[in-house]
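pls read this stuff:
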Amino acid sequence: MRLLSAIFVLMLIGISSPGWAADTPTDTVKRLIESVKSYKKETSTQGSAVNAQARKVTEESFAVQDLAKRMLGPQWEKLNAGEKKDFTQLLTSLFQKVAYPKSAEFLGDVQIDFRNEKITGDEAIVATTVSHPKEGQVDIQYQLQQANGRWVIEDVLLDGVSLVTNVRSQMQQVIAKESYQGLMKRMRDKLAES
């Protein structure tokens, strides 16, 4: 459960890829947040169309395979091409069916203040503060890298804690205790619950 909560939080704030032609690091972060916020709970034709567009924008902003590789750490290199594809597809499905709707719900009640943007060469940090009526304030820093002329988010720090490192650590614990197949089973079970 902690693993999937961390994935949800990671999805909430987004790891982006070279899918956008954003001008600045802050533009990259804002576009992803707006896409997630537009997600609808309803299953009407209009809601489905809005959600499909939100998923498209969000998925274009995700380097899911890079994210999967970073989350699995050393386990990634032990997988064959088919297993890597299966893991990446399962991670994408979890984002679509679990993280997107929960992220949209959470973001509906928050105020996001963009405090500053610091660019040093091909790296940048976008500092924000999220104010939630129930959860309080959280400082979030987006660490970005410029790749192919676009800004991509490489990590997100919540009150100084790296989400990529946190999720990787949790996945490694599950793999150590239950095996890689145990991790996949947990992820499939969570998907089936949604």
About this structure: DSSP finds eight helices and five strands in the chain. Confidence is low (pLDDT under 50) at residues 12-21.
